[in-house]
Amino acid sequence: xxxxxxxxxxxxxxxxxxxxxxxxxxxxxxxxxxxxxxxxxxxxxxxxxxxxxxxxxxxxxxxxxxxxxxxxxxxxxxxxxxxxxxxxxxxxxxxxxxxxxxxxxxxxxxxxxxxxxxxxxxxxxxxxxxxxxxxxxxxxxxxxxxxxxxxxxxxxxxxxxxxxxxxxxxxxxxxxxxxxxxxxxxxxxxxxxxxxxxxxxxxxxxxxxxxxxxxxxxxxxxxxxxxxxxxxxxxxxxxxxxxxxxxxxxxxxxxxxxxxxxxxxxxxxxxxxxxxxxxxxx
Length: 282
Known about the structure:
- This protein is 32% helix and 17% strand.
- The chain is built from eight helices and seven strands, in the order H-H-H-E-H-E-H-E-E-H-E-H-E-E-H.
- Mean pLDDT is 84; it is low at 207-216 and 226-232.
- A seven-stranded mixed beta sheet has the order 3-2-1-4-5-7-6, with helices on both faces.
- By secondary structure, it is an alpha/beta fold.
């Protein structure tokens, strides 16, 4: 069975018919609710908060955010963004309480710095690993998304993104992009090695354990209280590599081109003339 993101871009895949089907399916609503409650548990918000719902669709997760009881830290105010006009139209028809924004998260998160206390995303960010045209790269889309998300969250804020990577390469690509944007990042897997396995990318603004009472680097919080468990932070391994190439040399130019490619920029191919000294013209 093919994955939705391998067939069409999300704004085309989630047309009017697919949006209604997604929103009215009792199985999908139950699974979405379970994952949303799990994401809220990992966010650990204890008071009414301003939350960004990334890939909000028809507002299924937003309804839960609005319905959290005061004794559980709610209700929350939320803003949803999604690329599918049909999904957002369905959300409006259902009279959801959150504000809605039609936007492509692969182009960034267009909000003022520090707007949100937290963010959630259910089954959305794996779509960023698919490029719709040759001049756009998954790395570039992921970079713009995570950099924009980092800026939109307040200091000490958290984001939890449930996602379905196709393989380990996508899983690594997503987590690496988050770390490069400045997040403290950890991946939590529920029901591992089963067909019901769910992955949650837990992100913090301001580094590791923001509560200050857990193991250093324990972003997900699941290690807290356990004995004999070490947390390995791959960001702290090794020494900083200092490059000694002379500015303008061939090695320096090639390294800069590779950096630009990783950021999703389009660069000219290198040749035997790259970095070659030219005679002065008179």
